[in-house]
């Protein structure tokens, strides 16, 4: 194009501004309604997720309670089986000891001369009263055995003066009264008693009475020690049984505590997994609510020549999608919240860009109508987002390319590139470039544009325009003309 570009700053007419303000109010209301609709959708999804989460928790609680009841029933069964086994073992041991005591009672009763009948009957009644009871009879049986042995010794004391044979028989009876359990509990003591009794038997003749009496004390001491050792070992066995039972109970208690801790950890992990899944589901649902609007906003931003805004929206969408794909629940929620915050801001920006675009299109249409009135032919145009380019041609062949743009303050600007007019030179003359015919023509076009109650083009200027020219008002009119 030859010649310098010609510029005109356009003032937006008050009526047009009022229409724009009305449009802004409508846009704000539309954005408010969209945000309310999104908020309702988010609330509905949140309520649905809450119901689903409550149902899941209830199902998990029921499963946990069934599992807990099953574990408790299983432990109760195991404890009962253990207790039953111990009871059977204890009952068997008590039955064997009772049989031994019964044998002792029978021998004492058979050898008694009647003086001990009352006490024997009382002991027998006590024994019978304990047989078949639920209590553990180990202690009472040993107590009863001791009393029977004591009664037996009373008989031995009466028989001590009757001769070595009777005394020997009494010692042998005492050893027999201790029963096989004593031999099992104290085999060394039992063997020593047997050996001493053999030696005592060898001295039971009339010629060895002194040595018999001397050895008798050792025998009695050995029998007493054997009985005490066996009883002690029985008691030790009972104590060890108690300790074993207590240890088993402690092990079971620790197992129970470990099971409770493991169950609590499983519940914690399950709750954390449920929270993560719920957060991912929430982020996905919230993304679904804004995904389409965000995509449309990015497309519209590119159409309205704001690639930076389009890039921000698209990056926010990619971030949410990536976080969801990675299973990063908290990061996905943060990313979708950022997208939700960005979208209203972007929509407000797009509304302003759309208003500016509409303004350029309206100004372009007004300019095109005015050009038609001056005989121009419209050759076409392109919308470059922030710039609208229109091309016109006069019958003389001169071409006019008009760019409608917006300055940094939002004011519309007309830029003309003229080619083929005789008053337009490529280089301005030293005294200044004068474009009277072109200027007059464009002034007439601008007057027509300004008369449409939308836009009022300002002074036409260009590089090298003579400074002596100034605008003066035409007398009797509201028109202004540039004069030399």
Describe the structure.
The protein has ten helices and nine strands. With 484 residues, the protein is an alpha+beta fold. The strands form two sheets. Strands 1, 2, 3, 4, 5, 6 and 7 form a seven-stranded antiparallel beta sheet that branches. α1 (14-111) runs antiparallel to α9, α5 crosses α6 and α8 (307-326) runs antiparallel to α9 (329-373). It is rod-shaped. The model is unreliable at 426-434, 471-475 and 478-484 (pLDDT under 50).
In DSSP terms, counting alpha (H) and pi (I) runs of 4 or more, how many helices? Answer: 10
- Rounded average pLDDT: 81
| Class per helix and strand makeup | alpha+beta
Order of helices and strands: EHHHHHHHHHEEEEHEEEE
CA distance, first residue to last residue = 27 Å
Number of strands: 9
């Amino acid at each position: 194009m030859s010649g310098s570009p010609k510029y005109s700053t356009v003032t937006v007419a008050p009526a047009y501004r009022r229409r724009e303000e009305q449009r802004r109010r409508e846009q704000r209301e539309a954005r408010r309604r969209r945000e309310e609709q999104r908020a309702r959708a988010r609330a509905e999804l949140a309520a649905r997720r809450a119901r689903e989460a409550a149902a899941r928790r209830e199902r998990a609680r029921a499963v946990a309670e069934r599992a807990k009841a099953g574990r408790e029933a299983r432990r109760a069964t195991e404890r009962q089986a253990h207790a039953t086994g111990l009871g059977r073992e204890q009952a068997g041991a008590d039955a064997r000891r009772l049989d031994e005591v019964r044998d002792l009672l029978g021998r004492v009763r058979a050898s008694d001369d009647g003086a001990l009948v009352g006490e024997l009957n009382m002991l027998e009644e006590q024994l019978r009263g304990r047989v078949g009871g639920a209590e553990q009879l180990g202690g009472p049986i040993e107590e009863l055995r001791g009393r029977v042995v004591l009664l037996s010794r009373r008989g031995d004391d009466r028989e001590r003066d009757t001769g070595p044979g009777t005394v020997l028989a009494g010692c042998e009876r005492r050893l027999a009264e201790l029963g096989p359990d004593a031999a099992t509990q104290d085999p060394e003591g039992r063997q020593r008693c047997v050996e001493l009794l053999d030696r005592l038997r060898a001295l039971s003749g009339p010629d060895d009475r002194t040595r018999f009496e001397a050895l008798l004390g050792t025998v009695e001491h050995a029998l007493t020690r054997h009985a005490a050792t066996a009883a002690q070992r029985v008691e030790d066995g009972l104590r060890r049984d108690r300790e074993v039972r207590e240890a088993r109970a402690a092990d079971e208690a620790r197992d129970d505590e470990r099971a409770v801790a493991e169950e609590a950890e499983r519940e914690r992990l399950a709750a954390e997994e449920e929270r993560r899944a719920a957060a991912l589901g929430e982020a996905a649902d919230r993304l679904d609510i804004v995904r389409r609007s965000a995509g449309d906003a990015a497309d519209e931003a590119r159409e309205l020549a704001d690639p930076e805004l389009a890039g921000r929206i698209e990056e926010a969408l990619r971030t949410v999608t990536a976080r969801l794909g990675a299973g990063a629940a908290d990061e996905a929620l943060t990313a979708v919240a950022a997208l939700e915050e960005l979208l209203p801001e972007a929509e407000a920006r797009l509304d302003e860009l759309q208003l500016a675009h509409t303004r350029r299109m309206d100004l372009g249409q007004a300019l095109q109508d005015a050009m038609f009135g001056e005989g121009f032919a419209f050759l076409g145009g392109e919308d470059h987002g922030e710039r609208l380019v229109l091309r016109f041609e006069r019958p003389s062949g001169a071409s006019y390319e008009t760019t409608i743009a917006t300055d940094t303050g939002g004011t519309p600007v007309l830029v003309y590139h003229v080619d083929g007019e005789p008053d337009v030179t490529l280089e301005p003359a030293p005294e200044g470039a004068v474009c009277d015919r072109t200027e007059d023509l464009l002034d007439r076009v601008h007057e027509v544009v300004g008369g449409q109650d939308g836009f009022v083009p300002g002074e036409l200027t260009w590089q090298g325009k003579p400074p002596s020219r100034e605008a003066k008002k035409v007398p009797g009119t509201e028109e202004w003309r540039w004069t030399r």
